[in-house]
Amino acid sequence: MKDIKDSEETPLLTGDLPAPQGIGMAVAFDWGLAVQIFVTPIMTIFMGQSNSLKIPGVNPTLGNVLLFVVAWPVAAGLTFFGEMVRRGRNWTRNIQVIVNTILSIVGIISLIGLYNSLKAGNFWPLVTEVILVIFSPLIAWRLSRPTTGRWFKTVTAAEASKRHGGSWIFLIALWAAAGGILQAIAAMKR
Fold this sequence. Notes:
- The protein has 190 residues and is an all-alpha fold.
- The chain has nine helices and no strands.
């Protein structure tokens, strides 16, 4: 009996942690959302669209400034949250699972609107639906796996950063930038 107990504890004592699942997708999701929120005010100005923050009685220029003031700190917060997921902070896993589960439900409900948009020839909402109906549930499911939970509970920030560092960060940032820009365009084309 002692041998079984020792063998179960050995991986954690030797520093070999179980391989987590969904970290890259979750970080790309968070950073992609940050990119979307960051570029939306810029795209609003350069695409000649009326600002997304319409406040009755407020000058449109002031509305654009307010959009920057609100959007950029939110984008910074999402970037920070994604970084905490990357570093294995346990509190982020539960939040990520809950948020992605809710967004999955929203995506399923939105499928009716997608059908109507596609019938009208507007294919941009397909970008949002792919994110919400495919990637969101996959992130929630993979992060909720027991091995991922054990990893988050036992990993140090240094170990997590080492595992999810180097070219990994570059690839995740690339996916986040592409997805965030596509989603920003899709949101403006609704």
